[in-house]
């Protein structure tokens, strides 16, 4: 037989007389046998490779995402502010917060100053103008402070989003094998949404509350500094009950 068809029928002597190329047929049979023997190690290698792939798949198994609850330091919020402005501008914003807090205390200080005057001096029209100017200036500075601070945090959110997008575009394929698409989209939609919408307002309220407590302590100490040591434990307890700590912001 050759290539699936019968060439000659008969005994060996008949095959010799027919002139069939027996050497070519034998070489083809030997070559086929060698090929089959060569394929057997390939099958073993394939099994070994499949075993390695199973180990690789186990290594690439996607871990379930869980929420981590813990303490967030103020250093992280400093880096968050620094993402949207330079260090000098960040210091300028902090200075602006202190100036505005001082302007909020000035109207109360002016009223305290008026109480030390006589009854006739308390009814002067100039004092009312001064008080109105202090209140108006405090309101104006508060608006400027909120606008500058929120604008800085929005710039921080934009830069963080661009940095995340750049990291995703430069990430290797292994990153997408170990992280599902839904998890990546949650980082860009849910987490960035919180940073854009919720965090700036809450962060501003937290800073204002802390400064309010500090201003209240300073204003209460100013008239009678010697009486403060006896009253400061209760005052500090009230302030810390209302103050927002860093982990509460998240």
From TrEMBL:
Chief place where the protein resides: membrane
UniProt superkingdom: Eukaryota
Keyword GTP-binding carried by entry: no
Database matches in InterPro entries: ABC1_TM_dom, ABC1_TM_sf, ABC_transporter_C-like
Keywords annotated in UniProt: ATP-binding, Membrane, Nucleotide-binding, Transmembrane, Transmembrane helix, Transport
Membrane topology: Multi-pass membrane protein
GO cellular component, one term: membrane
PROSITE patterns assigned to the protein according to its UniProt record, in alphabetical order: ABC_TM1F
Gene3D superfamilies the UniProt entry points to: ABC transporter type 1, transmembrane domain
TM annotation in the entry: 87-110, 130-154
Any GO MF annotation of the entry: ATP binding
Domain ABC transmembrane type-1: 91-222
Cellular location(s): Membrane
One Pfam family cited in the UniProt record for this chain: ABC_membrane
Keyword set includes Transmembrane helix: yes
Entry similarity comment: Belongs to the ABC transporter superfamily. ABCC family. Conjugate transporter (TC 3.A.1.208) subfamily.
Protein name per the record: ABC transmembrane type-1 domain-containing protein
The organism of origin for this protein: Desmophyllum pertusum
């Amino acid at each position: 037989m050759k290539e699936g068809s019968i060439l000659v029928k008969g005994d060996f002597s008949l095959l010799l007389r027919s002139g069939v190329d027996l050497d070519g047929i034998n070489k083809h049979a030997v070559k086929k046998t060698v090929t089959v023997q060569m394929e057997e190690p390939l099958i073993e290698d394939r099994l070994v490779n499949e075993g390695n792939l199973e180990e690789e798949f186990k290594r690439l198994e996607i871990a379930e995402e869980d929420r981590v609850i813990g303490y967030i330091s103020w250093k992280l919020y400093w880096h968050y502010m620094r993402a949207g402005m330079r260090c000098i501008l960040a210091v300028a914003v902090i200075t602006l917060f202190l100036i505005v807090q001082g302007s909020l205390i000035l109207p109360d200080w002016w009223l305290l100053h008026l109480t030390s005057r006589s009854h006739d001096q308390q009814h002067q029209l100039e004092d009312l103008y001064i008080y109105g100017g202090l209140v108006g200036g405090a309101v104006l500075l508060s608006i400027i402070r909120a606008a500058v601070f929120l604008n800085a945090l929005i710039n921080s959110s934009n830069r963080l989003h661009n940095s995340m997008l750049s990291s995703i575009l430069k990430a290797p394929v292994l990153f997408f094998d170990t992280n599902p698409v839904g998890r990546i989209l949650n980082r860009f939609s849910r987490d960035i949404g919180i940073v854009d919408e919720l965090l700036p307002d809450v962060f501003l309220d937290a800073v204002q509350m802390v400064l309010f407590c500090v201003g209240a302590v300073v204003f209460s100490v100013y008239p009678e500094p010697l009486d403060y040591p006896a009253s400061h434990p209760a005052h500090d307890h009230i302030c810390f009950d209302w103050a927002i700590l860093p982990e509460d912001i998240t």
